[in-house]
Amino acid sequence: MDVSVVIPAYNAASTIGRQLDSLACQTFDGSWEVIVANNGSKDETVRVIESFKSRFPVPLSLVDASKTQGAAHARNSGVLVARGKFVAFCDADDRVEPDWLDTLVWALSSDVDVVGGFLEEYEDRVSDLDVTAIYEESENFRAPVHLGGNSAIRRHRFLELGGYDESFRTYGCEDYEFMIRARKARLRIAYVPSARIEFTPTTDFKNVLRKIYNSGKAEVRVWARHPDEFPGRNKLRSVILENFKSATHAVTGFRSNSLKGHARSGVTAAGHLVGVISGKYKGWDEPQFLIAPNK
């Protein structure tokens, strides 16, 4: 089989139908399948998926990924049963474009190991690159290639790296940490902006703050995993200074009516502070791979 599409799902009954409808309209004419990894949903997610099986154009399967909470475990569980040479990832609450899979598979067939598609948050910061833009140097790594909700990888490369670190259980940074390992392993990584999804942003203010805060905490875990990449960053003094600067900027932002960006920075800084304190006094969990990485 050419490619397996893996979708992590948690309480996605209201959204996953739209994503499956989008996948059913793919122009890709190779052999492929869709695997939904149910991460312990308590709503009607399973019923919705089951209702698609008989009318879906390619094999559609459901995997129980409820053992550990988090997208890392869900995606790992999907990859374990995947039959495709390539694995593509998308999220349950977005919608892929009709040529999405075509584009990702084309890129992976061009001597590339990992490919990331268009990410909404980077729209104004990244030029229109193509598959020939291979990121191998440290300074280029912060291009928008995270192995998350719009990406694909050669399955054997994913297994060689051990998959996602499942100690990342809350929102954020499991894809970022994986890609650091991918770069260190000298995988060939490319950004292909023509692989597009219709991104669904979080609009509930409380959920936005929760995601930003959890992502800040998770980023500290990345620093702890890769101190060579972030020397001195995982220090209490560093994040205290960051929080002091954020508080100062918040006052400036209040005066200039530019609160949104400063609020985001402040919540991120708070997540960093809590993460560093937690790691300092409780210690970090060891990396938890569903698949033992090659040494």
Task: Give an account of the 3D structure.
The chain has helices spanning 16-24, 45-53, 71-81, 100-108, 155-160, 174-184, 205-225, 236-256, 259-282; strands at 3-9, 32-38, 60-64, 86-90, 95-96, 114-116, 150-154, 189-191, 197-198. Helix 1 links the parallel strand 1 (3-9) and strand 2. 41% of the residues lie in helices and 13% in strands. Strands 3-2-1-4-7-6-8 form a 7-stranded mixed β-sheet. A two-stranded antiparallel ribbon has the order 5-9. With 295 residues, the chain is of the alpha/beta class. The chain has 2 domains: 3-198, Alpha-Beta Complex (Spore Coat Polysaccharide Biosynthesis Protein SpsA, Chain A); 205-282. The chain is built from 9 helices and 9 strands. The protein is globular. Mean pLDDT is 81; it is low at 121-143 and 253-257. Residues 141-194 form the Galactosyltransferase C-terminal domain. Residues 4-126 form the Glycosyltransferase 2-like domain.
Poorly predicted runs of 5 or more residues:
121-143, 253-257
The CATH class designation of the largest domain is: Alpha Beta
The CATH topology of the largest domain is Spore Coat Polysaccharide Biosynthesis Protein SpsA, Chain A
**Assigned CATH architecture of the largest domain:** Alpha-Beta Complex
Strand order of the largest sheet: 3-2-1-4-7-6-8
Major beta-sheet overview: 7 strands, mixed
Structural class of the helices, strands and pairings?
Answer: alpha/beta
- Overall number of domains: 2
Strand percentage: 5-15%
Whole-number average pLDDT?
Answer: 81
End-to-end distance, in Å?
28 Å
Helix proportion? 40-55%
Please tally the helical runs, counting DSSP H or I stretches of 4 or more residues. 9
Radius of gyration, whole Å: 19 Å
Shape: globular
Order of helices and strands: EHEHEHEEHEEHHEEHHH
